[in-house]
Amino acid sequence: MDETVHRAFAAETIPLAGEVEARLLDLERRASALGEEWRALLGALHTIKGNCGMVGQGGAEALSHAMEQRARELRDAPSHAQARAIDVLLQATDRLRAAIETPTSIAEVEREIDQLLTPRDSPVADAEYVRERESETPAGLPASASHVQIPGERLDRLLDVVADLLAWQARLRTATRPRGRRAVRDASPWLEPLDEMERRLAELRGHLAELRLVPLSTLLVRFDRLVRDLSRVTNKPIDLVVSGGELAIDKQVADHLAEPLLHIVRNAIDHGIEPARARMLADKPVAGALTIDARAERGVLVLTVKDDGRGLDPARLIAAAARVGIDARAWTTEQVLELVFAPDVSTAERVTNLSGRGVGLDQARRALERIGGSIQVASAPGVGTEFRLRVPMVIAVQRSLLVRCGAEVYGIPFTSVVEAFRLPGGEPSAAVPWRGAELATCSLAREIGLEDRAAGPATCVVIDGAGAPLGVIVDAVLGHEDLTIRELDPVFGRPRSVTGASLLADGRIVPVLDLQGIGRSARAASVGGAW
Amino acid sequence: MIDGEAPAASIEPAFDAAPLAAAPRHLALEIGGQARTVPVAQVHEVMRVAAITRVPHAPAHVRGLTTLRGRLVPVLDVGASAGGGGPVDGKARIVVLAIGARLLGVLVDRVGGVIAAPVDDRALDVDGLARWA
């Protein structure tokens, strides 16, 4: 099959397989299935079958037909063996997804089809299938013909062009800036069109940035299945509650969130939630409660993953830290809990096949910081653990502070800034008074490897660092601007403390800084911690 | 001027022109005082050296970012690894290479002419540059 046709077919049909999976999981959860769930399930399977038929995907077509057949039987005669049947259907969904991705012949899916259809009803099914196909008309084209798929880089190119236009626009404005009374009259006819143009360009940029947004549910639906499977493997019943899937976030953010979330959820099930017996003894509901909740807070996505398991044990964390040479005995509880993000500190007594693979929490934190996000943990022994992830919802365009440090200018997204104020004395010290308390500070110049700043006026940018606020000293705040933020090319090798770069309206380039990461390494240097 | 046997004058040799026309052509460069070549097909543009923004914690051979019509282009200072990295003069250029969807700038002392064939050990390892990080 033509490569382009197959890509379009797969892009359109894979999400439908996801829909099938989600409906099956819904049905499994609800003892008395709702008619609507069945309708959605059968509808999705039917559309998949149609799509496969149109592009001649024999294997996937036959398999989806068999699945539809089986699902119809289950709906009409809800049997006591329903759970087992849904298991078979879920396995078939995995196979179906693979068959959609890679062209597959009918012979290759014979075994799955056999499992789905009992030998007794298969001839009937085949006959019915033929009738059904004959009655199908070309009018049954999939409804998504109005959707266009655009590779991410093409959108980025468009954003680059708009950023460049905005820079030219700023130059025009400077060129027409009135000088002297006579000039004011000469320039005035230009001002309104210039203003209008700038507004339109900013609007265009906003629309383009929105095109990169995807519903958070595209990420969260995967956890339904994951949690179900993990629950089976560990033999721990789990009630998963997911909310906030309707929020729209940058595709890039969704991609960066997947691994950290996966890690946290695996940890929660493997180490957090106790086996059913232990839960009964502790007077807890037998089924562990796991919630993934997403909220939007001023352009920041706040994702909370919470379990009601045994919680983190500070004593064990302190012991684990001691093994790698960190003396944490005098630390506050918050500081001790932060140890879960330290690279070499592990409390896992055994490496299971669930956790103990893939990224560690230190890696998860790095991944989030690379997109300007952060992660914090709270936990109470016996009550549970809560991870809170904060990431910008839109990455492509972010309102940012512009700060000067020596001869260099940097962008700092508003999402990571609490407040900025001029230091009254001018001269920064290790701690400054702020909101009735002492605020620890660090020098941005030192943290990013510039020469130490010269004496003179200074400004303090307050960030909400891990555990406590931190003041980052810069020379001056120059203002703020909506920045079109680009990822750095791989040749930069993911430098710590930088999340990307942006072209300013005046044509200059500014690196965009990750103040969370900078604050953390500054604090680690002063506290002597390992993270 | 590139030293040795690949002067700019060799762009259009007087003999055997037909097979050369079909052969891939190469741009002669000088990087860190050494003669280099790069296939013309991979050159997106040769630009004058404009402002280059330093990026904190970037590898030593990555000089920073420059802009080409709104796109941010990393600038590699390959000569820097050979002890260069100093100031650039008026003949210096940024040779912008197109590698897939990426643009990669290479700071060169000067650009020579287009020559028919590269001298093998002078060909710039473009793929290597793109991976080098």
Description:
The complex is a heterodimer of chains A (about 525) and B (about 130). Chain A folds into 4 domains: about 5-140, HPT domain (Four Helix Bundle (Hemerythrin (Met), subunit A), Up-down Bundle), CATH 1.20.120; about 150-210; about 215-390, Histidine kinase-like ATPase, C-terminal domain (Heat Shock Protein 90); about 395-525, SH3 type barrels (Roll), CATH 2.30.30. Chain A is built from 16 helices and 17 strands. Chain A has helices at about 5-30, 35-55, 60-75, 80-100, 110-115, 120-135, 150-175, 180-210, 215-235, 250-270, 275-280, 315-325, 335, 360-370, 445, 515-525, and strands at about 215, 240-245, 250, 290-295, 300-305, 375-380, 385-390, 395-405, 410-415, 415-420, 430-435, 435-445, 460-465, 470-475, 475-485, 500-505, 510-515. A 5-stranded mixed β-sheet of chain A has the order 2-4-5-7-6. In chain A, strands 9-8-15-16-17 form a 5-stranded antiparallel β-sheet. In chain A, strands 10-13-14-12-11 form a 5-stranded mixed β-sheet. In chain A, strand 13 and strand 14 (about 470-475) form a beta hairpin. The longest helix of chain A is centred in the middle third of the chain and has 32 residues, at about 180-210. Chain B has one domain (about 10-130): CheA-289, Domain 4 (OB fold (Dihydrolipoamide Acetyltransferase, E2P)), CATH 2.40.50.180. In chain B, the strands form 2 sheets. A 5-stranded mixed β-sheet of chain B has the order 3-6-7-5-4. The longest helix of chain B is centred in the first third of the chain and has 6 residues, at about 15-20. Chain B has about 130 residues and is mainly beta. Chain B has helices at about 15-20, 80, 125-130; strands spanning about 25-30, 35-40, 45-50, 60-70, 70-75, 95-100, 100-110, 110-115. Residues about 1-20 of chain B have low confidence and may be disordered. Classes of the chains: A alpha+beta (about 525), B mainly beta (about 130). The interface of A and B includes residues 157, 449, 486, 497 and 501 of A.
